Amino acid sequence: MKTVYLFVLLSFLAAISSVSAADNMKAFPPAEKGMTRHVLQLPKQDDEYAFKVELIVGKTVQLAEGNRYFFSGKIKAVNIEGWGFTRYVVSKLGPMGGTLMAVDPNAPKVPRFITIAGEPYLIRYNSLLPVVVYVPEGVEVRYRIWSAAPEAKPIEKG
Fold this sequence. Notes:
- This protein has about 160 residues and is an alpha+beta fold.
- It has one domain: Immunoglobulin-like.
- It has one helix and ten strands; from the N terminus they run αββββββββββ.
- It has one helix at about 1-25, and strands at about 35-40, 50-65, 70, 75-80, 85-90, 95-100, 110-115, 120-125, 130-135, 140-145.
- The strands form three sheets. Strands 1-9-5-4 form a four-stranded mixed sheet, with no helix packed on it. Strands 2, 7, 8 and 10 form a four-stranded antiparallel sheet that branches. Strands 3-6 form a two-stranded antiparallel sheet.
- β4 and β5 form a beta hairpin.
- The chain is flat.
């Protein structure tokens, strides 16, 4: 009998968590024309302050392997009025730039994921809210999870 109660309780809690996730999505409007919406629901962690999420925005392009490339553009954090949630928007992916090292003109071009230039874009890890990113059509959104070591080390006096 206890097993039945436990199963019912766990089913109820799972239903509540899925409903709250769906309710959170009400704050995020559908993508406008020419844009796409990407949604990431993070798994719960024991100590979420020890984690960060890196948002990586770019596009896969056929290029030679010898040079480094990047797109201009910026990820902008936008507060959603009335909700207090944040959405991330890349309004446009600018022109692609790169180094100009000579490469063999007969070398085959390969698909390469080229990102927006600049420092990594790190945001707070929060499994209670989805990470929602709006980008132009044809643009990809990837992510990476960063974690801190469990202990802080002292710096010696100098």
